[in-house]
Write a structure and sequence with these properties.
Layout lengths: L1 H21 L29 H5 L14 H20 L3 H23 L4 H21 L4 H21 L5 H14 L1 H24 L12 H24 L2
Helix pairs in contact: 1-3, 1-4, 3-4, 4-5, 4-9, 5-7, 6-7, 6-8, 7-8, 7-9, 8-9
Protein name: Leader peptidase (Prepilin peptidase)/N-methyltransferase
GO molecular function: aspartic-type endopeptidase activity; methyltransferase activity
Subcellular location: Cell membrane
Amino acid sequence: MALLFLIYGLIIGSFLNVLIFRLPLGENIAFPSSRCNECGTRLKPIHLIPIASYMFLKGKCGYCGKRISPQYPIVELVNGILFTLIYLRFGWSLESIIFAIAASLFIVIGILDFRYQDIFNVTIWFGLFIAFIFLAYLQFSNGDVIGNILSGLAGFSLIALVIVVTRGGMGWGDAWLLLIIGMLLGPSLTAFAFFIASIAGGMVGTYLLVSRKMGRRDSVPFGPFLILGFYVALLIGQEAVKAYLSAF
């Protein structure tokens, strides 16, 4: 079953690349069919096999010979690994399917936010839809959804406060993203995810400042770090929180 999750993750990862390329351009994500970004030639099914096609073509278009961005196999591989880890963590369940879909969506959000410093509305709406589906699942399975709702609202309010106080130090997309993460993870794991995001963001920001690759007035998108925190909290957060609490 883990192998099946890996294969599905690789296939969906290929579709994520379509979203990452087409959403900023405002293009239809279904039509036309996949094509080379350089020469525009329609790709054959053999060119669309995740990872294998990139290796077979040696990272070049089979028609014009232009180099294919390594983003394509990397996204496919990362998504496949995430799907596999989620299955190993949660088993075969509706919960694992929801988390796998959310993990895929967050790859798209993270890359687009890194490139454009913008979280697109369509990804937020879909993320909220996933979160509400998860809340419905929790309601029917154990009836305890209040904590998840409150953690999402608390996360949103925290980012909103930062935006107001700093007058734009963060973006509203970050607030909506943390709302989604909070509804998916619940109180303790959301706090842990935010802690990981803050530490990672602080370390990267400090490095960029010290190395003079970024000025003091430049900004680093926080969305990718929130997403990193989500992945870490989802996969090992329970154990990390328990270990921390047991130390006191």
